[in-house]
Design a protein that fits this description.
76 residues, mainly alpha, 4 helices, 67% helix, elongated
């Protein structure tokens, strides 16, 4: 759960921002964040990036996957 610098793993924080943690891990991360202003700031930055990316690509989120890409996936 922790990286070598004593902070939460960046992937775990990314999963936290994306809402992809199970209840137990979510509780543990929130407890950790309550005591870590540096990682709370990292989460704030991740959340801002997530909103920015969503806004940038919102117009194409519901587009169908192009046939050439489906074909590539099928062939592998």
């Amino acid at each position: 759960m922790m990286d070598t610098g004593g902070r939460l793993d960046p992937g775990l924080l990314s999963d936290y921002v994306a809402g992809q943690l199970d209840k137990r891990t979510l509780r543990d991360v929130e407890r950790y964040l309550a005591a870590s202003s540096a990682d709370r700031e990292r989460v704030r930055v991740y959340q801002a990036q997530s909103r920015m990316l969503y806004r940038a690509y919102a117009s194409v989120l519901d587009e169908p996957v192009p046939a050439r890409l489906r074909d590539l996936l099928r062939d592998h």
